[in-house]
Amino acid sequence: MTARAVSHLKPEKEEDGSKQGFPGTHKCSVCCKEFRRPSKLKVHMRTHTGEKPYRCDRCDKSFRNISHRNVHMRSHTDERPYVCEVCNKRFKSLSHLKSHVKTHAGEKPHLCKICSKSFNQVGQLKNHMRTHTGDMYRCEECGRQFSALSHLERHMRTHTGEKPFKCEHCNATFSQFGNLKRHIRTHDQTGEKPYKCEECNSQFSQLSNLKVHMRTHTGEKPYRCEECSRQFSRLSNLKEHRLTHNGD
Question: Which pTM value belongs to this model?
């Protein structure tokens, strides 16, 4: 039997480290998943007990797995050691890089059996499935629902006012890491503009500005006036236009 043939017999590895296809030696007493190593089973058991022993000393967020805590810590330092060889975009974790590389290949191997929408990460598919099952994460303050727990946690900061991301230059705090990253560039004396237009080589300090600029090439106008159906490439232009209808 060739090595290629043998590779097709390897058990599929789940996100939590369990294996399907070959029997494991360490079985979860709650859900019967099997693991090759007791350390993997120990980490898996925390999904049932809720135990999160690894705490971030910057924002007090806790994690079941020390590697997840270490990846999270990079959100405070902006360390991104994993680089895409195609576009040079940098990532905090190897798994994020691997998922990103699939976007260049157009690979989306995880298919929703209900609506046939496909995703490049199994986690994205799981979150999407909640839109079909109705098993959403609900905000107890306003009733808004989310398919991903991380989205709910981010939303909750609009109610609590929590701003866990702190600028080391001026101590300004932010509720989202992306806002902190944009703010840090205001301290940057080099005038860094890492986002480059492939059409005309214009460069921008923020990705959002590049996206707006790209509409000058594509002609896209995603903002439509509900009164007269006129369309605009920028939301600010639509807001200004609306004043012509209400007389303000």
Answer: 0.40
